[in-house]
Design brief:
By secondary structure, the protein is of the alpha/beta class. It has 22 helices and 24 strands.
Length: about 750
Amino acid sequence: MTSDRLANLSLAEQACLTSGGTAWTTKAVRDVVRALRLSDGPHGLRRPQDGSLLSASVPATCFPPAVTSGSTWDPALVRRVGAAVAREASALGVDVVLGPGINIKRSPLCGRNFEYFSEDPHVSGVMGAALVEGIQSLGIGACVKHFAVNNQETDRMRVSADVDERTLRELYLPAFEHIVREARPYTVMAAYNRVNGVYACENRWLLTQALREEWGFDGLVMSDWGAVNDRATALAAGLDLQMPPDGSDDQVTAAVKEGRLDRAAVTTAAARVLRLQERVDRAERFDDWDVDAHHELAREAARAGAVLLKNDDDLLPIDPMARLKVAVIGEFARTPRYQGHGSSRVTPTRLDDAWGALRQAAGPELELTFSPGFTVTGEPDSALVEEAVAHAGEADVVLVFLGLPEESETEGQDRTDISLPRCQVDLLRSVAAVCPRVAVVLANGGVVSVSNWRDDAQAILEAWLGGQAGGTALADLIFGAHSPSGKLTESIPLQLQDVPSYLHFPGQDGHTVHGEGRYVGYRYYDTLDLPVAYPFGHGLSYTTFSYTDLEVEETGENAWTVRVAVTNTGSRHGEEVVQLYVAFDEPHPTRPRHELRGFAKLALEPGGSARAEFRLSGRDLAWYSTKRGGWRIDPGAFTVEVGASSRDIRLRAEQRTPGDGIADELTGTSSLGEWLDHPVGGKLLRERLTEHPGAVKLDDVDPLVLSAVAQTPLAKFTGPILGLTREAVTALVAATQKETS
């Protein structure tokens, strides 16, 4: 069908299909292809009322951003959110939703971190795939972004992310790869930045070799808005659609006529636009959605994503039926921070605030008072502080709502620090001085430092950005109608200087060098055993859980099934995120000490038990070898770890892998040690040496001497020592290659 329609289009018509028609639509061409509508929407739709880039958007459900939904560790819940977004997209005439964003949280300073899931590619990949599956379950297209290594907003349109291939393969690309292979997204968005000097939109290695040829992507690649610098180069690299239009279609036809661009590249891109239309034309179409039901789903997601960092003496939950005086302090309780700023900003269908929700849920004998304590913009106000301290001094418990001002978290700029505003910290200390029973509720899209004030709070609830129903979700948690079940998907450092990218972020002279390599987040902190405020995967509950009966069953070559029993040992219903890590104990690290390879969220009643089950494959043990140009599994020991966070490992089991059985290719420049360790080359070398009676016998050499020369290339041993000639080395290489081919 696509080929028939394509045959009816001229070169000029095909070229125009590879560029947008308006800021938010593709081009229509005669009666052959209709215009498709695209909309921002990782956590809800931002469909502008008049079609322009900057106009206000029509109301839609504002679900919690990825920072919160990722902290749920609940793919099934995120899948339901995706389906709800798709239902609203259908009702609003949207064909493709521009999301999810799955870039790695390299630094907590990234101004757009609220749109991303995690510092870990496994979490990002699994949660991102769930959102894609949910959106596409109704036939609406999803767009995975921003491909790739788009981890900062500073100089985002030009900066080159300079990163070695092993780090790319092991950290920055796996989430994209997982989503492409498992969720089959209709579209992928190429990023603004350059990758190792080449713009992502013009990077054939990214858009064609990795994405299509290696991972099997069969959809459309579009640009981020305004990211294309050269239409012809981008089309040749594998970009199919430039957004928005810039009137450069004639440049494409001219490039073809001048021989600078293969016409097949234009035809292929146009065909992918046509195929996208065919896919979305099969979508289910709806006229409206259940506004209340979607609001309740947003409430559930906000509740599940909140992370209880600290809860000394079980300060939380507060019994809503108790005879208590509770002081609610902080403007964010009344004026909620519920989403970040920029292209993902949604106009909500309604908006709940925590102060109103707490009053509605409180029993008749619970006395609540409110004082703002500070302004939304963070300006200090002594009168507001005095009022807050007065209320706190009369209270049994104080709830202090703190967080980051909206302008500090926005697309287009990075943060400069991770501290709360000074006036908020001063307010907390003043309140804690008159009432020791203080719980802090945080509202922020990026990590904030807690180390300089956490001793002033008995409890800390990291609520992130809760979307439009975050206020009622907080009341559910504070009053104990539900137990917190969120876990951190990023480490909280003690201070900004501890962050592994601190010396490299955001770079200068148009380059950001990823000098920390693969050691981002817990991969760095745990490998070096450095202290953090709260580790990756951490999150408390109102109940407790025990882990027992770890079983690791080998089910095939480099394949295992891991099972563990988890029991709710407390008195409340709760949900536990069971985390599976694979660990390697090396005297000198060549890879992170351990890495997340699976997780499962279990809902358990008091006394109830369930088993979490995971599958491990060879890829879970592999590392990317640039020498080999692929993934490799080394033979040896590894450890299966199961726990409640990266620093709270409950059970361990040592296993062994035979490796992948692939021997590296040997050359004359391969070292003596590499030759001796090679299963074929070592045998041939020893046989060759026995043929030369005057040569030194390796078995008679002092091990220390042999160790000292083990790194010397074999070609350096031509002469009397080993009795080798250049011809003999060449023959050994040829014989080894013949036996291993």
